[in-house]
């Protein structure tokens, strides 16, 4: 339904921000092109559960085409954006050029290794489905190889899993990983010796989850310790070669697994606009979410730097992206109508983080909750926020099942083994 | 619980044959090592549904460790077998050597391209989860790219899907693929023009599914035609370069997709034993399933050539492998006890093939069924045969859901796009 006489709005990214912006514009007299390199929206808050075998990939991904099945003013383009030519209001993508009257920029964040190339090469990151599946396959393989390993040192290194970064991702991953190895895999691998398993969460500062109060933060640390996670503060990681983790103190930890949850930054695409950048390479947007000197470009989500009324940078979380998506969509229309734009105001819906079964911490409705009630709240909120009935019902079944039987959803190693595949030679048929 | 004083039985392959053999030996005074390059048992009868987005990979795969959780006389080894040194009763694997007193060989079949290297390079095969996911991703990508494509010739080539081989795999894949594109994707891609979609099933002989009677075979062909599949007989494929399919007649069909279901042969590992080979490179086993001149080696499933009482070669189907697995397990014990071995007799449980919703053909209990009743039977039998309650319940939900709402389970493209991923450069953190 492309109509060239309509104002052209291009949205880069089908994450929480871009998708919400597109939905906000559903009934507007505009033509929208939504561009993403994947054909699905990813429910990132549960990505760590793919990495820890709690849910399967397709249960937290939802096809963009299904989301916008009934939205007639939108075309989806499966493509990678290589160039933003802001001076000419033009994008270069792997599927050709796109011109825009308004650009909504929502490509999200990427992992920041702070220039540590060696770590980047050997450590795991957790930003997309491929990352999550790579972690899951690696963990399962380590356990599989550990039970066959006669050398106790190598065995312990395989069973030592290090996560660095005490934000929500690091905390949730550490808790889930500990339950996976200690409770779920332990049942299937009766040779696994629990005393040889080690899960370490290393944090550079002195507390977990900066968005939480000291009390909740301490409760999260205590809950992790109960789950068998060793939490260490003031403990930055300075190296990893696939065999040992090097700490700033000089200590080395023999381990085959480092999951890097210690840094995020804006997608580097945003640097092409030439706008002023703030911390983490984010664009310092105006209160209207516009990019300075480019009133036709809106930047939202993990790539936008904006402070709340207390002068704090807005966090890189789904609720921020969703609310900004809505605001950017509305402001884009105002911009096209030459109406005055409105400043974005973030309404904090609260923060939730789970540590594992029966354990979560929550700061919500002015309350600080932890334990079972917070966990139940976390479960309900996440089921509810998932897109699509299929995904909701399947995730619910996985969780009930796992809860009752301490089982994992996906315990198969999907990328083959480290093994060479024999090359079949030709045989004539009968 | 490895006990070196016990007789050592090594089983290669955790498919239907190998798994059943291992289960048959559950209470025997032997030590079993089960070797496979994957850590899961694959329910191959539903593999084509992974390729056509009907179920997800993890729903038809089941971890070997979970199957054998309570079997104390078995160790699983995730490894690739590179050498069978039958003279010394010894295997070389990627995880070290294994010695055996009895070897049960069940590595399964591989795709046979009859030496057509060019076809092998560009066509898709359908033997494992990677193959199935590659097909699914490719089909979804073709549709995605077709709706963006202005050139009608290229568009039609992207929407032409060719399957060659009219056995059960080809028939089931063609039916499911037609429903996926015409019924499921059509809802999400409103620009998709049904008249541009073409699904072709090419068979070299004059009938579908050799195991069926002429009547059932004709019914299968008629049902496929109704589903929008163009079935052509006497139509061998002689070439494919990724852009067009070349037929023996000289005709070319512009298409980006050739699924090769036209040939299977025994895994080439079996050639190392030096035993006499029959059609499709299979070992001509004795009636006891032993390999000639190697009474300590049993060959079962897709790699074993054996005739039924009518002189027909046993088909490469799950029921054959399962029954042979049981027989080989029992005969292995008899061999170790120096008791007389028993010849294997195949009991045909019947053949079932589905053509899509409400349509299947069945030859079972001496009856020839087709249509809705056969389809319902197919559904019940396959749910029932799946391993594990999780997989059963999830597949059931997928099927009910798809049946009611014409939806696909997995419509996400999981291997990224054909697109180059931008290499992020480093940014210092705040």
Task: Describe the overall structure.
The structure is a homodimer. Chain A is built from eleven helices and 25 strands. Chain A has about 425 residues and is α/β, with parallel strands linked by helices. Among the domains of chain A are: about 10-35 and about 80-110 and about 265-335, FAD/NAD(P)-binding domain (3-Layer(bba) Sandwich), CATH 3.50.50.60; about 115-260, FAD/NAD(P)-binding domain. In chain A, strand 6 (about 80-85) and strand 7 (about 90-95) form a beta hairpin. In chain A, helix 1 (about 15-25) packs parallel to helix 9 (about 320-335) and helix 5 runs antiparallel to helix 6 (about 150-160).
Quickly describe the structure.
Two copies of one chain form a homodimer. In chain A, 31% of the residues lie in helices and 24% in strands.
User: Mean pLDDT of chain A, rounded to whole units?
Assistant: 91
Which second-level CATH architecture of the domain at 117-262 in chain A applies? 3-Layer(bba) Sandwich
Q: Count of DSSP helices of chain A? A: 11
Pair with the biggest interface: A-B, 73 and 73 residues
Strand order of the largest sheet of chain A: 5-2-1-9-21-20
